[in-house]
Please model this.
Amino acid sequence: MTTTLPEPPADLGLGLEREVPLSRHTYMRIGGPAAYFGTPEDLAQFERIATWAREHALRLRILGGGSNVCVSDEGVRDVVISLRRACGQIAFDGVEVTAGAAVMLPALARAAAERDLGGLEFAIGIPGSVGGALQTNAGIGDGRCIGDLVRSVKVWRASSRETSGHVTLPAEAITFEYRNTSLHHSEDLVLGATLSLVPRPRAEIDAEMRRLLEARQRTQPTAEPNAGSIFRNPPGDSAGRLIDAAGCKGLTVGHANVSTLHANFIVHDGQGTAADIAAVMAEVQRRVLDTSGVRLRPEVEWWGDGPPPAAWHLPSEA
Ligand SMILES: Cc1cc2nc3c(=O)[nH]c(=O)nc-3n(C[C@H](O)[C@H](O)[C@H](O)COP(=O)(O)OP(=O)(O)OC[C@H]3O[C@@H](n4cnc5c(N)ncnc54)[C@H](O)[C@@H]3O)c2cc1C
Model:
């Protein structure tokens, strides 16, 4: 399958590896190979990769923490980029912090706490990057979310030639909704964001973060590979409640099952495949539709080449 794909020319210094298993880079520990995988040293190298990918009509995907994706067992014929080296910086200025897209939320929350700055406590247990969080407006059940803190987002937009691709979007130019933002499905790739925090004593921040982490330990299957909440909450209800009510806790296909601790988590025993996860999801959807009439929509994103598995085939208004 990969024989028809172009080889990156050595003289361009793209630093791309071939056929890299994405199971190494996803929180679920599942996923076939990326045809190309790169961790550019800086934005100049990133832009060379992006330009080369465009010239060869290859899709460029950014992988952050890999905590909200389910990658096909066959992998993807795409160029997958980690911005870990190019966009991993944190800079504080008063109550504002500018963080690179690859900065992980828990690390950012801790760095802010060290400066007596609160606002990011909610993010302590979300294993995603700033760039990933800005795709879904990551947040927690009480309504706190990253969108509330955003002052501006720096993106790379290939079509913006006059700015060499670099565009800074003020918060007002971005729509933040429940687990969705206008940045997602746009052509913009997030390079970093400036967030507005609030002064708060470190002891208070630490105490709240401890409480939040303890609550996760009690209610979520933290020991087994998973991708967090697998379905979005339907309006006015909770996906976990509906899945539990449909009797799906423990439902198993292959090596994957609905967690017995939290019904909206699908876990696997280390041998699970994307096909197992997708099959459990489809069966959960079928049973929940039967018992409550609700079509659950995946929160986790599917990465694959062909049409997505049935679990992701849903009418857009569902
Ligand atoms: C144990 C666990 C608990 C979780 N708890 C929560 C929670 O409480 N609240 C919550 O909201 N989510 C939660 N999640 C889901 C997940 O952590 C979030 O959605 C997170 O924001 C995803 O970030 P990521 O960097 O891992 O994104 P990835 O999974 O790497 O990518 C997700 C999408 O974002 C895109 N993307 C990533 N970086 C960029 C970028 N720089 N520019 C453009 N696109 C980009 C990717 O291409 C992909 O489309 C949880 C997940 C797990 C595994």
Observations:
- The domain at 12-81 is CATH 3.30.43.10 (Uridine Diphospho-n-acetylenolpyruvylglucosamine Reductase; domain 2).
- The two ends are 35 Å apart (CA to CA).
- The mean pLDDT is 95.
- The pocket of flavin-adenine dinucleotide is lined by residues 27, 61-69, 83, 101, 126-129, 131-133, 135-136, 138-140, 189-190, 226-228, 301 (CB under 6 Å).
